[in-house]
Structure prediction request, 865 residues.
Amino acid sequence: MTITISLPPKPSETPEFTADGQKVREAGTTLRTSSSIFDDHGSFAGGKAKESGLLDGRSAAAYAQALSPVGKHADACSLALRAAANAVLGHGDELVDLRKRHQQLEGDREHLARQVDALIARANPLPTDEAELQILKSDCERCSSQVEAYESDLVSWTEDLEASEEKVAAALRDAMTEQQVDQKYGGVADPADAARDSMPSGNDPKSVKAWWDGLTEEQRAAMTAAYPEIVGNTDGIPAAARSDANTISLDRDLAELGAMPEDQRTDDERTRYDNARAAEEARRRISKSIDPITGENYVPQIYAYDPMAFDGDGAVAMAVGDLDTADNVSVNVPGLTTDMEAAGDNAQNAINLQQAAAFEGGTSTATMFWIGYDAPSGADSVGVAAEGMATAGGERLADTLDGLNAMRSDDFHLTAIGHSYGSTTVSHAMTDHHPGADDVVLLGSPGAGDDADSADDLGIGSGHVFVGTNSEDLVGRLGQTGWVSPAAIGAGVLTGPLGGAAAQMAGAGLGHNPAEDDFGAVRFQAESTSRGSIPNIDDHVKYYDHDTESLANMAHIVNGQYDEVVRAGQVHDPWYRDPVDPETDRTPTSPNTDGR
Amino acid sequence: MTARASVAMAAALMILVAGGCGAVNDETYAKLERQRDDVLGWARDLSSVAEATLAASPEDATQSYDGVARSGASDRFKSYKYDIQARFITEQQDPLAALSDDLASYDPTLTTSNALRLSHGELTAFFQTYPKGPGRVGMFVEGPAIEIDHDQIRDWDGFVVGEPVDLQ
Amino acid sequence: MTLHVEPGKVQSTAAAWDTENLHLTAAAKQLHGVGTGGFTPTVASLVGQFVEAWEAIATESARVSESQADGLRRTAIDILRTDATTDINASLVLSSIKELR
Prediction:
């Protein structure tokens, strides 16, 4: 009997592939930002620029005549550059996918080459035993078919790469000269305008989501480039799209105002630029931070960006993780002295919480800092006479939480975390508007607001209202406890930057101390190993620090690991003496929260 | 004094402390710059050893010199810490053990099974591995926090966040 | 006699053209900085040509904006100078029309 054995061929080399889809996406993002500048230039030429101030008939007519082609050309440039940007962004996505396939091919090739070498070795010399020969034959056939599959995958990969290259090259070649641009795009209607006209008039995030879903991909891309301030800040629009839009707005502010000589900036421009730089610091800080489980850098999502909001205090919200897909999402609301310039510090808090959540076993988490309300800051602090800013902020926060729920069609776990005055804001959002948050965390709270007599009033069940208060946190002691409000002592006694605001919080009477037993929330351990020996302000700002009890417990809450949350004894207030905090006598611990 | 009155007094004291800052002088800049030079120098040394130990070049090396408000007295006071980070992709089976051997002079300590801590005077470094990032080793080098009034040096052009840096 | 120019409007629109010049110059600078490093060699050179072409387009649009601003101011000043021969108000507002940036 003759046994024919065909040795498998060596797999072809995987071609070198050095392209970087992420870098290509960055190039596309820059092109899109530039297209947005042309878009605004076209709008200017067709609008404000017409008000020449020339009343002399001939001169006015000459000016108007010169204006028209400028506007038309700018609009054409905007559309052409946007089309090229979209092509480059799409190419970037395809390259990311091709990179993954290339890595798979490289692995397959290496594995197959080793197999082929082993089979050649087994065939030299050929085994004399027939059974062994049969096994060798069958192994060779199996390997040959695997090599064949590899070669076929390699061909598909090469064809897909060439197709992607050709597509982007064609888009670029189409818009290489001004003549091409004017010919192809001159007088063409911007798809963004029709999309904008069909936008629902109210601010119901579900209607917005339905409208967004109903747009074509081209319309969405057009809206993002032409109206980034709308797409970036409208609740109901998915976070990835909002982030794309806000990236355009932020990059434009940095580029346009950064190019302007400092002494030529107006007051508004200076404010806008300072806030943009603060947002950029937050973005960079997130980008350079690393997930302690995967070792990969985080990709920031800019969920809101409005540098001129609240009379220049600015509004910004940025997430560490993907708000569109994460199983667990937290919205972190800062308090005292928060304006947009605090974005960097708040980004660090969100990073620390994400890292801790990942380290504690959270597989899919997004943590967002939200500077989206007019918090007491700078001169504002002087005006904090009541809960007004927290009440108004609560309404805005409730809209944000509703927006997150509306943009997601799946079931996810949402935690609202408020620190300091932000905890009063969170409490107001919950008691006054009942947004769909699953858990609430009140940190260093000066009070849960006048509308909350107990944790049940927050509307999610008292077992889901968590409170973290360091026993020596000065602000955490300001809430009303039992039968006397510290407001009576606080107001008018304290002065200075933060102490003044703290005094005013005390004077304002921001409601019940949520760490007290009467309130009925779940208090978790939040002491610090560097805790002071008397009530102080430094212990008010350690809750998000790595390796603290509070960060570990918050991570568990965000992950929904309720059994892992380490409970603390609640404050109680006997009628015959000052409130008693059992945590004062406990020795604080330092759990590892980042794997170091 | 009741506890409530002591709360008020404590805050008033904090404000006095916060209000007592003076102008930032050249010494502060010198301190910031010295830390940068020290950290960068040590990071280059560590990187060079790691390169040999892990048979891999450092990737995505970045430097940062931003400040975080860590004091409650005023967010004007920020803790500045210069740090360098980079990553290596290695085939070493137990990279932390190998690094611990080769960097023995820096008092290596395994703080967790994933992190090796090193110290050099006031400077600290970590090499870290990742449960779901096989082959990845992160290197982090930093100086101690220096607390400074941010407003007085906000325009200092030495501040960087996540800028690329050459470790060669 | 009525002036043939609204000086405030001329000044603000011309200033807005100046701002457009700055914005488009910023766009040109951004385009100049677009890196080709992430692309495959097949596409990279084309991307290089593309951004070079668009840097020129943005620079030219910036130049046009600046010339619109200057032209508007110059026209207004010419008209006001003519008006000034018969109207004292025209000579008074002449100095309000100037380039700020």
